[in-house]
Amino acid sequence: MFRSKLQFFTNYSTPVFEYTVKADANENLLDYPEDLQILIADILNKSVKDLCFYPEINSQPLKQELAKFYNLKEENFIIGNGSDQIIQIIIQAACDKDDFIFTLYPSFAMYKITADLFDVNHSFIDITQNWEIDVEETVKKIGKNERIKVIFIDTPNNPTGIALDYEKLKMIVKSFPEKLVVIDNAYGEYCDIDYLSLVLQNENVIILKTFSKIGFAGIRCGYAIGNERIIENLHKVKPPYNVNILSQQIAISLLKNFDRLKDNIDTVKNERLRMANALKSFYFVLPSQANFISIVDDEVDYIFDYLKDKKILVKKFDTGFKKLLRITLGKPVDNDIILENLINYKRGKQI
Ligand SMILES: *Cc1c(COP(=O)(O)O)cnc(C)c1O
């Protein structure tokens, strides 16, 4: 009844157990300011009478708001049911069966999962032993394979949190004017580097953004910014009515009140520094520019189970030569609990 490859296919999943601290999915779990809560409740209330209608087919009003926000044109945007959906749209629009996508390794899991589903192959470059991207090697490797159609660069990277230097990314972009370079900037609000000018100055670049990592993972809304030709082609494969009315309205009001999210973003950035400093005498902490920190440790499996016993949910990764524990930064009180347990784990081992 189903495609035979589904037998071996596993989609994205996460372990489930009872927890008191959730630090596994890079959500922003800080409370929003009360006036923003009221505003959103108000929007939901007002939208009730509109639920009989289909939403705007291409999320037009949200695009208008984004155009204002970025000082660009509506034609520079496509809206997705999460940026996950835009990843799928990009692969569908750019890749024939047996073409390739290219990613960093490690990187966000959905690139490869989505490529697999559409019978698109996957080529990648390993991060170096020093946790750097060797751009010359990357360019060499991509250059050897004509069937690579899309290059996905998540920066800041998930799961390391490391941001790719602007000039290095520019070099990749300039080397392959005929390939689509996707800058996945899901953690952009937590990062000091602004890559937007790469989109505006090059014909082959789009940037992916999302509301998910700044407190609104539940509305499933992400978008891409690119030149009109790219955006027009992506719309050809976008399912109609892909973003519901409630999500569109909430996203519009978030853009209008974006300054109200700033405190939560700043808190996370401050917590990132505090946690990294407190952990660095016990663990090797990667230099994160995202809303999580990742530690490198051979004992990640034990640490994960140790935290699980304390009802703390984090995420672990086996990245080939090293193991990583990715810890989403949350409320300071929750971060304290994680910190204390991570330190206790190491202290316990010393006795
Ligand atoms: C979380 C994440 C996404 C997915 O974002 P959604 O908008 O929730 O689909 C995309 N890319 C990266 C790198 C992520 O970490």
Automatic annotation (TrEMBL):
Gene3D superfamilies: Aspartate Aminotransferase, domain 1 (3.90.1150.10), Type I PLP-dependent aspartate aminotransferase-like (Major domain) (3.40.640.10). One of its GO terms (molecular function) is histidinol-phosphate transaminase activity. Its EC number is 2.6.1.9. The keyword Zinc does not apply. It holds the Pfam family Aminotran_1_2. Pathway: Amino-acid biosynthesis. Residues 46-341 form the Aminotransferase class I/classII large domain. InterPro entries: Aminotransferase_I/II_large, HisP_aminotrans, PyrdxlP-dep_Trfase, PyrdxlP-dep_Trfase_major, PyrdxlP-dep_Trfase_small. Its cofactor is pyridoxal 5'-phosphate. Keywords: Amino-acid biosynthesis, Aminotransferase, Histidine biosynthesis, Pyridoxal phosphate, Transferase. NCBIfam families: hisC (TIGR01141). Homodimer. Belongs to the class-II pyridoxal-phosphate-dependent aminotransferase family. Histidinol-phosphate aminotransferase subfamily. PANTHER family: HISTIDINOL-PHOSPHATE AMINOTRANSFERASE (PTHR42885:SF2), HISTIDINOL-PHOSPHATE AMINOTRANSFERASE-RELATED (PTHR42885). This is Histidinol-phosphate transaminase. It comes from Caldicellulosiruptor morganii.
